[in-house]
Amino acid sequence: MQGKKDFHDKVSTHFRLSERVPTHNFYRRLGDVLDWEFLRQQTRPVYSHTGQPSLDPVVFFKLVLVGRLENIVSDRRLIEQCALRLDILYFLGYEVDEDLPWHSTISRTRQLYPAAVFEHLFDQVFRQCVRAGLVAGDTQVVDSAPVKAAASLDSLREKQATLAPSLTVAGEPVTPAPAAAVRSAPAHQLRREATRRAKRQGAPGGLGARHPKAQLLSNKTHYSPTDPEARISVKPGKARALNYLCSVAVDTATGIISHIQADFADRRDSTHLPGLVPLLQTRLVANELTLRDFVADTGYSNGFNYAFLEQQGVTPWIPVFGAYKPVAEGFTYEAEADAFRCPAGKLLPFRNFATSQDGNWVKNYRAAYQDCQQCPLKMSCTPAAPQQKFVRSAFDTAYRRAWHRQRSRAGQRMRVVRQRTVEPVFGSLLHHYGLRRVGTKGRVAAHKAMLLSAIAYNLKKLLKHQPKRVVSLALALQPGLQRQSKSLFRVWLLADYSYSVL
């Protein structure tokens, strides 16, 4: 006989969430991982002692973590999803007939709390991962990727010209306000960019000839009034967009994120390393871990970075740029004199320090004018210049060590370690933890969003971790059997089992 289920929307008088949510449920286990009480202490200074009670800080952080775990960026959709899930309601501490907070309350609370509270929550989760044995700490892999900002290129406006910094008004130097500095630029810079743009537009076969209505957009000449701190960046193979840069450090043991931060997307990756390493080392030292190997891609290649990491006692496994050559063909370097010797036997001594176009320190080596003018090899060595000269990095010795490291067997292994460690983490953050697009405005707000995604990622890794322990029993043989046996010290494995701590 065919059955038929009849539904009667009746009022249930005997219902408990704790009985409906099983003990192995993810969110039920998540509530027991941390002691959430510290969040109330951290956020107490931002509230007044009078007025209406605010949203519970613990409930707020649980809500935004649910949004990252469920890959929901919209606060409105987050509230709708939480109202339909019994396990999430139990995790938040809400009854079935109790109304959840309004979605605008979540947005205002996110702006109210400082980034230090989010970082403290990240530290607490990271400490739990260390205690569970998921973090080794000795080898860290660092990489960065652009994250779309909550602004479009259609919202860009041209910057207004400002007075030069050297000018004064009424005897006082002119210093624009931080907000005005984003929306304006020096007049000479705008003129130079306008000239450069006109040349590119009018060049035969250039952009202007192919696309007459095309505009050249640059961070030097344009800004977004929607999100003034978002920057125009270009990723190979993709169109220009307003982005933030997400820098991530991942431990090589099990892929736990050890550091994450939001940076401006119009700078090179190498410029963010000196600020990232001290924060990473502080977190590792607080958990009694020591950083020994630093692995990154070529984007972090910089002479100062090599010397900085070596000074910190860290081995940099960062490939150098392909154009770098450790030695010049036909020239030998003499370390004692700090000079190069040319094929004719003349010295090119060190002359002075200088800065390159990208702001790096370089050393200039130059031969004497008389030596080159009287040299029989001048036409084949330096026919155009009056004398031979070399421009080397001020950190050339550190560059040379890095060049030899990347060609060693350990360097090839570190390249594979970087690819299999950090790239899957970035893929997960962008596609499964709500970091494909930052839904907030400002770099600080983007930093909070990235911290929440990293916290959710580490929490899921922590709850999935099931440590195994093998218990062995040894069988003692009788003296007679021992003499007959050739393996007197063999241990017989009788039983093994594994259990989960969670």
Structure, described:
There is one protein chain. By secondary structure, this protein is an alpha+beta fold. It has 4 domains: 17-113, no CATH class; 135-150 and 240-319 and 420-464, Nucleotidyltransferase, domain 5; 158-165 and 176-223, no CATH class; 332-402, no CATH class. The chain is built from 19 helices and 17 strands. It has helices spanning 17-20, 26-30, 38-43, 57-69, 75-83, 86-92, 103-112, 115-131, 178-183, 187-202, 207-210, 273-286, 303-311, 369-373, 378-381, 396-406, 409-432, 443-464, 479-484, and strands spanning 139-148, 157-158, 160-162, 168-169, 172-173, 184-186, 222-223, 231-233, 241-251, 257-264, 293-295, 315-317, 332-334, 339-341, 347-355, 361-366, 389-393. The strands form 5 sheets. Strands 1, 8, 9, 10, 11 and 12 form a 6-stranded mixed beta sheet that branches. Strand 11, helix 13 (303-311) and strand 12 (315-317) form a beta-alpha-beta unit. Helix 8 (115-131) packs parallel to helix 18 (443-464). The two termini are 45 Å apart.
CATH top-level class of the largest domain: Alpha Beta
Q: Percent helix among the residues?
A: 25-40%
Estimate what percentage of residues fall within beta strands: 15-25%
The overall strand count is: 17
Superfamily (CATH H level) name of the largest domain: Ribonuclease H-like superfamily/Ribonuclease H
Give the CATH topology of the largest domain: Nucleotidyltransferase, domain 5
| Poorly predicted runs | 166-170, 484-502
Radius of gyration: 31 Å
What overall form do the CA principal axes indicate? elongated
Major β-sheet profile = 6 strands, mixed
Structural class: alpha+beta
Pfam families: DDE_Tnp_1_6 (PF13751), DUF772 (PF05598)
Protein name: Transposase IS4 family protein
Region (Disordered): 178-231
Biased composition (Low complexity): 178-187
